[in-house]
Every structure is written in structure tokens, then in C-alpha cells.
Amino acid sequence: MKKFEEKTIRTEEIFDGKVVKLQVDEVLLPNGKRSTRELIKHPGAVAVIPITKDNKIVFVEQFRKPLEKSLIEIPAGKLEPGEKPEITAIRELEEETGYTTSQLTFVTSFYTSPGFADELMYLYLSRDLEKVDQPLAPDEDEFVEIIELTLAEAKEYVSKERIHDAKTNYAIVYLELLERML
């Protein structure tokens, strides 16, 4: 066994939903003892940092039920089975904002909550936005409002916790670093 590896002894599937699966694994720890791990299995997701021609970031505001409040976030969505992240990114961008793009730049990928979930999120940047005359419809249970902010305005929203999720904060820090390099 590797230094920190936990060997799975048994898996119990608890829930199989549209977005996530929940399982409980019994594991053998590196010290030989046993423990349990509650795990969320997720198909992965994408997020896009969309920048308009006048250098504004396109955000969506939406209600987040686990938090019981609305957040302002960059557009994002779940990967569909067999779908490439770039395709998901363009689809989600259009569904949520009414913009499309012919150019995506891969920024990075990261695990959103590795302590209990395997969700891997792919982050893209696009500065080549075009408004779509008849955009793809959002999901039937998705209600969003578009907000366009400068980087300075977005940082102010962060300080007031109007922007308060990891992917969007990551995007703002990334844009701030890019700005400093130019």
C-alpha cells in the first residue's frame, strides 16, 4: 500500500440521482485500522470566464438552494456523459448568458471539494464572445439573471460576499494575475 492510500474494502451505494451519487466506503487505513468515507460521485463540470469586447466579465446570478440565497457566479454546468469539456463550456455559456464563442482557452482544472467529492471542474476563458439571436434555452429549473461587471467591480462584490463561491473567486484571482502580467 502507498504511504497514504486507503484501500476500499466495501462500497454501499446510498443514492443515485440526476446530478450526484452518494456512497459509503469502508476503508483500510495505512495504519491497518478501518474507517468509513461518505463520498459524492459527480460527472464533472465546466466553468467559463466570459469577457465582453468592452472588457466586462459576464456573470449569472442564481438562487442556490443549499445556501438559501442567490450568488453571482461565472457560467458553469455539469458534463453530460461522453461530452468533451469544451462542448459543455460552449453549451452552458449559451444557455446561461445568451453568448457563444469560437475560442476557448483552457485555464486549469481543479477538484471542487476533494474531502468528500470527486467533482473535477474545467475552467476556460473566452474573450471572443458573440451574442446569439436565439440562444439555447436554459434548463427548465434554471432561473438566472445576467450581470456584467468590470474586474474592479467583481472584486468589490467579492468583498461584500455577493460573489462567494470557489470557482468564481478563482476566476477573479486568475484575471487579476493576468492583468498584472500585461
Automatic annotation (TrEMBL):
Keywords tagged on the record: Hydrolase
Gene3D superfamilies membership: Nucleoside Triphosphate Pyrophosphohydrolase
Record's keyword annotation contains Hydrolase: yes
InterPro entries in alphabetical order: Nudix_hydrolase (IPR020476), NUDIX_hydrolase-like_dom_sf (IPR015797), NUDIX_hydrolase_CS (IPR020084), NUDIX_hydrolase_dom (IPR000086)
Entry cofactors: Mg(2+)
Domain (Nudix hydrolase) ranges: 40-171
Tagged with keyword NADP: no
Family: Belongs to the Nudix hydrolase family.
Protein name according to UniProt: NUDIX domain-containing protein
Organism: Ornithinibacillus salinisoli
